[in-house]
């Protein structure tokens, strides 16, 4: 709340340079802000009495938005990439998919490794378990296992998360 939106009788006032002015009636505090050609901003409405500060509210909002934008720019959005394996995968196909897993982990993305079972392959779920265990042991130095291999419907799923740098 700023200026006329403040509806309490008295406020603890902080000056434009951060100095404590003390407890003042709201009208007097607002007049001091107007005389300084600044705004009266309620910075702690839950305090008894509420704490208000004399500041340039437009400049304050601009600085705040700039900080938020900078923080958004520096954050990394983690995607979940999915790599499908088959229970009867050949060695070369496995190596190709394994390279993709390593590439995704190095880029900082999580990887969802899945083994899809078709038809009667589901009766040999231990084969899919072995494939996912092999992937897990080969990338143990690059990542941590966020979710152990688990059978869900006709797929066995494991999620790998990159180790933080």
From TrEMBL:
Q: Provide this UniProt record's keywords sorted from A to Z.
A: Cytoplasm, Initiation factor, Protein biosynthesis
- Residues in domain Translation initiation factor 3 N-terminal? 2-71
**GO cellular component terms listed in the entry, alphabetical order:** cytosol; membrane
Q: Which parts of the chain span the membrane according to its record?
A: none
Source organism's superkingdom? Bacteria
SUPFAM superfamilies named among the record's database cross-references = Translation initiation factor IF3, C-terminal domain, Translation initiation factor IF3, N-terminal domain
Q: Which GO terms describe its molecular function?
A: ribosome binding; translation initiation factor activity
Q: Which GO terms describe its biological process?
A: ribosome disassembly
Translation initiation factor 3 C-terminal domain location is 78-163
Q: What's the chief localization of this chain?
A: cytoplasm
What is the annotated localization of this protein? Cytoplasm
Function, as annotated, reads: IF-3 binds to the 30S ribosomal subunit and shifts the equilibrium between 70S ribosomes and their 50S and 30S subunits in favor of the free subunits, thus enhancing the availability of 30S subunits on which protein synthesis initiation begins.
**Which NCBIfam families does the protein's record reference?**
infC
Similarity section? Belongs to the IF-3 family.
Oligomeric state and interaction partners are given as: Monomer.
Protein name (database record):
Translation initiation factor IF-3
> Which species is this record about?
Paenibacillus brasilensis
């Amino acid at each position: 709340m700023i200026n006329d939106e403040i509806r309490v009788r008295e406020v603890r006032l902080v000056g434009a340079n951060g100095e404590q002015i003390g407890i003042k009636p709201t009208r007097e505090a607002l007049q001091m802000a107007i005389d300084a050609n600044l705004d009266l901003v309620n910075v702690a409405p839950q305090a008894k009495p509420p704490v208000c500060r004399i500041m340039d509210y437009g400049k304050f909002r601009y600085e705040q938005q700039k900080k938020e934008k900078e923080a958004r720019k520096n954050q990394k959005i983690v995607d979940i990439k999915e790599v499908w394996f088959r229970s009867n995968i050949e060695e070369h196909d496995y190596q190709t998919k394994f390279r993709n897993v390593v590439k995704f982990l190095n880029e900082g993305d999580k990887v969802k490794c899945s083994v899809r079972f078709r038809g009667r392959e589901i009766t040999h779920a231990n084969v899919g378990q072995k494939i996912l265990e092999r992937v897990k042991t080969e990338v143990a130095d690059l990542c941590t296992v966020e979710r152990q291999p688990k059978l869900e419907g006709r797929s066995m799923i494991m999620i790998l998360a990159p180790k933080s740098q």
